[in-house]
Amino acid sequence: MIQGGGKRMSIDGYVYVPEESKEAMTQASQGARVSLSDGKPHFIVVDHYLESIVVAQWPGKLWHVRILEPLTKAAEQAAGVAPLIAGATYTRALSVEVLDEIPIARLFGNCGEAVCAIISQAGQMQIEQVYSLAAARHPAAGATYARLWKNWLASISHVTSTEPPDDVATVSIFVGPGRPKSPVNEGFSVLYQEMISRAESVSGAAAFIEEEEDRYLEPNWSAATKALLDATMAYGAPQLCSQEDCTILTQAWRSVIGPLS
Question: Rounded CA gap, 249 and 241, in Å?
Answer without folding.
Answer: 9
